[in-house]
């Protein structure tokens, strides 16, 4: 495991919506601290002032006070009205209604990884989500099995991904960088290991990345790779995984066309190194218990060939 | 003392035919509301131990990052059972226990309206709870969380029979809870002492009356949802399964249209207890009686119009959200304002800081924290940030523990002398209080920050991100302190029962009718009743006696 690139916190906003929500948070913290301190202050004052003394007479039996009661309803009512106004305003600004705009990216939650595709292109990838910085983009959020939830704290709102429904979210990331989050709706055994990694790039780099990733995979011509490619087909990996440009066109697991160009595997929980690939394919359950990929009991040399092949998919 | 007709069920009941020395058999066959009340409290303690062990295992697993102490499968079962247990099998029975014990005593009745149904409700609830726990032996406990979202609750994603037990167990618990609530409603409406109009009802009884209506109205959607889910899982119907035309969202609507009122169901009785406790230990009447009662009714009505604030991240659209944001903020007003009513009750009083009073005062702070973080969730954009994060875990524990449980603790220390006939040592009580308060805040306050820093709830482990490790460790230590304090509590209760000082009828110089009778009360609560002039009937009686003496 590795340290995140940036402080993950709702108080470290990195997008337009992130900032809007941040300001609302601050207003709320001020108002609620005021109320909390008022209650604590009154309580301490009362406790010190009205402590019973021996042989106290029964205190005056005050039953109510109309003015104080009116204030007790009136002031909180005004406070919540103010926050209601801010709520509506922020809501409208953050989530304007969509009118059939084409989303930049579709993110599909699965147990327990993210399929990422870019409408209008042939790019399909997994887990690491590349987006342009400084540009307003629309995310299309869906799920294939159970409910998942999109949450990158620095970007502001989270949004559920619900099987059978489509949700949208607007996002304008401030600047290039790597941002982290996690699936935020309990989704079964590996809910914990369903982390999100967004790679925001300059417009230019993003376009370059898109073109690179639209390409089909390098054909294995090198003799050291042919063996691995063959095992990939034979061991039924191809039934679950897609490698564009080859016969592998499964849709159960992540697209591996450009696997080697990703920094992490397994929903951002493990670094993408040959050792980790080896360990994972050798025994998927050991690294991610419950994972929807079976163990194949491959020979060491087959495994090595497989990993060499996968590692060549730049 | 004027003698008043005592309302009581006419028929003779089985309990009177079994003499007291028959021990266990007598407890099992009892239909006496006091014994059933105590059985409810014992049931609550039993499940508190189970739910508490689950909580400790959870905290051990989370004490360090990337921990393998529990498997994800086990962890998911434990957090599901922890939540379900605490809500349905600990808080609810504790509340029902105090209600069936004290409502008749506070309104001058000799029992509930339907004593046999009272016993039935208890035992069927206990049976439901046992069935739920039996799932551990039957292949696996439920593992989709206490609110058990579709489609994760479908057979395709949760193969063990745990969720089937969840459905059946909770249906049975629900039958018991609704049964007792109907019983309480009828009792309060028909069996009040002569002259005790609704305006002269003690606040606790008012809250229980409101609460019972709330229960009767809130449980049907849950029962419907549970039955539909059971059909989905057993007979392959398609209510919640989107692949065959069902809707997972319908589950959420049904569950939360029960689940949100449930939150108030667990807090209103504590509001009632606090109202009694603040009066007695401040030696003053409640500040704004009609306001306290009125806001209780307002809360109960509004409680049915706010459930979507549990679903602000579902994508239902801004129009729906605006309405539910407004209603949720609105309910914050009567809830929050009660805090100031209690402060008003203490103001100018002559305060006695007993353990019970300390819990009541601590409640004001803890519940305000939980209430304010609750208002945060009514503000839709803040909800978008923080829902389903550890911030929610912190919030709900501040409401359930800092709110409901602190209230019940105040009630326990207030009424223990009445129920047992013995006083609790104040010194030990205060030890417990401080240990509990420190442990509780240590466990849960830091979880607000964890949520702000992006830790989702219901994770069996987490990466070693900056701050996560020490914050989780702190929370775990707090959890152990809390458990320790509970052991101390059980010791205190046991010891006081054995060697505590005799309590006498009225150790606190209290205001309501239960303190006019012996501690513990006889099988037949009342043979005569004072005239009722106000909601502080016993105080009126004591005042009159004093004045008569002076007048002579
Ligand atoms: Cu997920």
Automatic annotation (TrEMBL), chain A:
EC code(s) of this entry: 7.1.1.9
Keyword vocabulary terms for this entry: Copper, Electron transport, Heme, Iron, Membrane, Metal-binding, Respiratory chain, Translocase, Transmembrane, Transmembrane helix, Transport
Location relative to the cell: Membrane
SUPFAM superfamilies: Cupredoxins, Cytochrome c, Cytochrome c oxidase subunit II-like, transmembrane region
Topology versus the membrane: Multi-pass membrane protein
Ranges of residues in domain Cytochrome c: 223-314
PROSITE patterns reported for this sequence: COX2, COX2_CUA, COX2_TM, CYTC
Enzyme class, broadest EC rank: translocase
Domain Cytochrome oxidase subunit II transmembrane region profile: 2-98
InterPro entries xref list: CcO_II (IPR045187), CcO_II-like_C (IPR002429), Copper_CuA (IPR001505), Cupredoxin (IPR008972), CuRO_CcO_Caa3_II (IPR034236), Cyt_c-like_dom (IPR009056), Cyt_c-like_dom_sf (IPR036909), Cyt_c_oxidase_su2 (IPR014222)
The encoding gene: coxB
Protein known as: cytochrome-c oxidase
Cited function: Subunits I and II form the functional core of the enzyme complex. Electrons originating in cytochrome c are transferred via heme a and Cu(A) to the binuclear center formed by heme a3 and Cu(B).
Residues that span the membrane, as ranges: 26-48, 68-88
PANTHER family hit by this protein: CYTOCHROME C OXIDASE SUBUNIT 2 (PTHR22888:SF9), CYTOCHROME C OXIDASE, SUBUNIT II (PTHR22888)
Subcellular location, principal: membrane
All residue ranges annotated as the Cytochrome oxidase subunit II copper A binding domain in the record: 100-212
Record family assignment: Belongs to the cytochrome c oxidase subunit 2 family.
UniProtKB/TrEMBL annotation, chain B:
Record field: catalytic activity: 4 Fe(II)-[cytochrome c] + O2 + 8 H(+)(in) = 4 Fe(III)-[cytochrome c] + 2 H2O + 4 H(+)(out)
Pathway(s) where this gene product acts: Energy metabolism; oxidative phosphorylation
Topology of this chain in the membrane: Multi-pass membrane protein
Localization per Swiss-Prot or TrEMBL: Cell membrane
Pfam families in the record: COX1
Keywords for this protein: Cell membrane, Copper, Electron transport, Heme, Iron, Membrane, Metal-binding, Respiratory chain, Transmembrane, Transmembrane helix, Transport
InterPro entries from the UniProt entry: Cyt_c_oxase-like_su1_dom, Cyt_c_oxase-like_su1_sf, Cyt_C_Oxase_1, Cyt_c_oxidase_su1_bac
Residue span(s) of domain Cytochrome oxidase subunit I profile: 27-533
EC nos: 7.1.1.9
Enzyme class of the recorded protein, top EC level: translocase
Regions that span the bilayer: 38-58, 78-107, 119-138, 163-191, 203-230, 250-274, 286-308, 320-344, 356-380, 392-416, 428-450, 470-493
Protein family per UniProt: Belongs to the heme-copper respiratory oxidase family.
Function: Cytochrome c oxidase is the component of the respiratory chain that catalyzes the reduction of oxygen to water. Subunits 1-3 form the functional core of the enzyme complex. CO I is the catalytic subunit of the enzyme. Electrons originating in cytochrome c are transferred via the copper A center of subunit 2 and heme A of subunit 1 to the bimetallic center formed by heme A3 and copper B.
Protein name as it appears in the record: Cytochrome c oxidase subunit 1
Species this protein is from: Pedobacter segetis
Gene designation per UniProt: ctaD
């Amino acid at each position: 495991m590795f340290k995140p690139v940036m402080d993950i916190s709702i108080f470290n906003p990195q997008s337009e919506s992130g900032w809007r929500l941040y300001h609302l948070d601050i207003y709320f913290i001020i108002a609620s601290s005021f109320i909390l301190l008022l209650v604590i202050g009154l309580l301490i004052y009362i406790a010190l002032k009205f402590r019973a003394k021996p042989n106290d007479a029964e205190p005056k039996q005050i039953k109510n006070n109309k003015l104080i009661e009116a204030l007790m309803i009136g002031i909180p009512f005004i406070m919540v009205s103010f926050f209601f106004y801010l709520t509506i305003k922020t809501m409208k600004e953050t989530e304007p209604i969509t009118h059939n705009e084409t989303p930049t990216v579709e993110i599909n939650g699965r147990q327990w990884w993210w399929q990422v595709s870019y409408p209008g292109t042939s790019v399909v990838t997994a887990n690491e989500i590349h987006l342009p910085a400084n540009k307003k983009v629309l995310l299309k959020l869906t799920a294939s099995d159970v409910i998942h939830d999109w949450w990158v704290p620095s970007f502001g709102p989270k949004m559920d991904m619900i099987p059978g429904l489509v949700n949208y979210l607007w996002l304008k990331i401030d600047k290039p960088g790597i941002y982290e989050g996690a699936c935020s709706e309990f989704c079964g055994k590996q809910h914990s290991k369903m982390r999100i990694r967004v790679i925001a790039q300059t417009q230019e780099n993003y376009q370059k990345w898109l073109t690179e990733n639209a390409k089909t995979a390098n054909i294995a011509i090198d003799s050291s790779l042919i063996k691995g490619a063959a095992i990939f087909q034979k061991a039924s990996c191809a039934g679950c995984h897609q490698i564009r440009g080859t016969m592998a066109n499964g849709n159960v697991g992540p697209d591996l066309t450009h696997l080697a160009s990703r920094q992490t595997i397994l929903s951002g929980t493990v670094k993408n190194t040959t050792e980790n690939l080896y360990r994972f394919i050798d025994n998927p359950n050991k690294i991610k218990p419950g994972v929807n990929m079976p163990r194949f009991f491959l020979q060491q040399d087959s495994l090595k060939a497989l990993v060499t092949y996968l590692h060549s998919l730049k | 003392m004027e003698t008043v007709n005592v309302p009581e069920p006419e028929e003779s009941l089985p309990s009177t035919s079994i003499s007291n020395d028959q021990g266990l058999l007598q407890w099992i066959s009892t239909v006496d509301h006091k014994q059933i009340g105590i059985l409810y409290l014992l049931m609550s303690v039993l499940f508190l131990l189970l739910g508490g062990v689950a909580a400790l295992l959870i905290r051990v697993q989370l004490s360090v990052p990337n921990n393998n102490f529990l498997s994800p499968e086990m962890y998911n079962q434990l957090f599901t059972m922890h939540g379900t247990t605490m809500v349905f099998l600990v808080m609810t029975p504790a509340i029902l226990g105090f209600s069936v014990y004290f409502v008749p005593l506070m309104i001058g009745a000799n029992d509930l309206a339907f004593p046999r149904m009272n016993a039935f409700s208890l035992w069927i609830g206990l049976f439901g709870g046992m069935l739920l726990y039996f799932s551990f032996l039957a292949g696996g406990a439920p593992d989709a969380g206490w609110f058990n979202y579709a489609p994760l609750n479908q057979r395709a994603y949760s193969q063990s029979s745990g969720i089937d037990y969840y459905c059946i167990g909770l249906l049975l618990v629900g039958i018991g809870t609704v049964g007792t609530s109907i019983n309480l409603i009828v009792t309060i409406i028909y069996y009040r002492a002569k002259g005790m109009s609704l305006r002269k009802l003690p606040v606790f009884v008012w809250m229980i009356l409101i609460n019972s209506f709330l229960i009767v109205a809130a449980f049907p959607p849950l029962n419907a949802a549970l039955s539909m889910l059971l059909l989905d899982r057993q007979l392959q119907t398609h209510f919640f399964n989107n692949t065959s035309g069902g809707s997972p969202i319908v589950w959420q609507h049904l569950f939360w249209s029960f689940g949100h009122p449930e939150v108030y169901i667990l807090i209103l009785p504590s509001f009632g207890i606090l109202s009694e406790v603040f009066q007695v230990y401040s030696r003053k009447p409640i500040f704004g009686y009609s306001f306290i009662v009125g806001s209780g009714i307002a809360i109960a009505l509004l409680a049915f119009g706010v459930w979507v604030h549990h679903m602000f991240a579902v994508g239902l659209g801004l129009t729906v959200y605006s309405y539910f944001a407004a209603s949720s903020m609105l309910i914050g007003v009567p809830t929050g304002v009660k805090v100031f009513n209690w402060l008003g009750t203490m103001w100018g009083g002559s305060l006695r800081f007993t353990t019970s009073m300390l819990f009541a005062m601590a409640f004001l702070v803890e519940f305000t924290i939980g209430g304010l973080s609750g208002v945060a969730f009514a503000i839709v954009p803040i909800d978008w940030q923080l829902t389903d994060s550890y911030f929610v875990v912190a919030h709900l524990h501040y409401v359930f523990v800092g709110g409901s449980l602190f209230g019940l603790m105040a009630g326990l220390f207030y009424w223990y002398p009445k129920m047992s006939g013995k006083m609790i040592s104040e010194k030990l009580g205060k030890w417990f209080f401080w240990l509990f308060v420190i442990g509780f805040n240590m466990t849960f306050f830091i979880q607000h920050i964890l949520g702000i820093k992006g830790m989702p709830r219901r994770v069996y482990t987490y990466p070693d991100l900056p701050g996560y490790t020490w914050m989780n460790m702190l929370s775990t230590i707090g959890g152990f302190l809390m458990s320790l304090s509970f052991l101390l509590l059980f010791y205190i209760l046991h010891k006081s029962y054995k060697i505590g000082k005799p309590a006498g009828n009225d150790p606190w110089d209290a205001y309501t009718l239960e303190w006019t009778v012996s501690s513990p009360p006889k099988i037949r609560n009342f043979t005569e009743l004072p005239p009722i002039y106000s909601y502080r009937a016993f105080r009126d009686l004591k005042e009159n006696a004093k004045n008569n003496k002076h007048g002579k």
